[in-house]
């Protein structure tokens, strides 16, 4: 059976809850996991607050708070295949009086209700194939019209080669993607799995997780445009030769991340434009997972750079962009499984 891929890599190419950047709970970690009696219902809750900070070149401030609630459940399971469904509610409130130079004031609130799921099948040769799809409306007025609807879908496959290595293939379509929205984007990578090392290198993504000694690990990943993370983690009781995804009950990590969110404002004049939050942050996170499928995670960090812009292309953002001074933030995340 195909081993689990890194949660960090999957979180970048997955359809996951969009709220305060780092509060995502990726569901695609299940795409490649072996069929087994894991929790069939999962509930995820998250909340975070970002300190208000001065907007550069404006007499204004900007802060945010909010989070999401998500429910994922297995709807059907056969001998080699299964179907999962999920729903996620997102709510983000903006504080302050910041204004974009061209389009003006930012909305007071952003919300979304995401409906989706995935199907996957394990083939006799050990390969895995599947489809993940979702409909959402990330907007200040969700589901108020067709121009605030978003659709995403990902075809995925893992083809084993020798040992635990294998090819990873994806075809991603996302109408709100920062890189070429609405254009199907192929991805291909090769994954090496050795004791203490798991590396997936390809186009357009890269992910490496290295554990040189017991309890300590280093990970790094990147997915265009402007999505990446490096992390150093200490997890007592995690051996170098532990199976992928298995670790001790406690984990403490130091992280540096670049991320972005895309939203569709209801009253925008150009339907190709997206409101984007681009964030560079560093944070310290602590996580307790008493048993598989359940965890609580606390994070405290510093937003080093926050850019907000509304444009039809990430390459054309200078005329309608604001930058916010550094600020502090914190978040709490709870995941339960039955």
What does this structure look like?
- The protein is mainly β.
- The chain has one domain: Beta Barrel (Porin), CATH 2.40.160.
- The protein has 1 helix and 19 strands.
- The strands form 2 sheets. The protein has a 16-stranded antiparallel β-barrel.
- It is globular and about 60 Å long.
- 35% of the residues are buried.
- Give the overall silhouette: globular
Looking at the structure, the CATH topology is Porin
Task: Tell me the major beta sheet.
Answer: 16 strands, antiparallel, barrel
Report the mean per-residue pLDDT as an integer. 84
| Spatial gap, N to C terminus | 23 Å
The strand line-up of the biggest sheet is: 1-2-3-6-7-8-9-10-11-12-13-14-15-16-17-19
Q: H/E element string?
A: HEEEEEEEEEEEEEEEEEEE
* CATH architecture type: Beta Barrel
Question: What does this entry show, briefly?
Answer:
The protein is mainly beta and 338 residues long. The chain is built from one helix and 19 strands. Strand 1 and strand 2 (61-77) form a beta hairpin.
Notable traits:
two-stranded antiparallel ribbon; single chain; 16-stranded antiparallel beta barrel; disordered N terminus; Porin; 1 helix; 338 residues
Layout of strands and helices, then pairs:
Layout: H1 7-13, E1 41-54, E2 61-77, E3 81-96, E4 99-100, E5 104-105, E6 109-122, E7 128-136, E8 150-160, E9 166-174, E10 185-194, E11 197-203, E12 206-213, E13 216-223, E14 227-234, E15 250-263, E16 274-288, E17 295-311, E18 321-324, E19 327-337
Antiparallel strand pairs: 1-2, 1-19, 2-3, 3-6, 4-5, 6-7, 7-8, 8-9, 9-10, 10-11, 11-12, 12-13, 13-14, 14-15, 15-16, 16-17, 17-18, 17-19
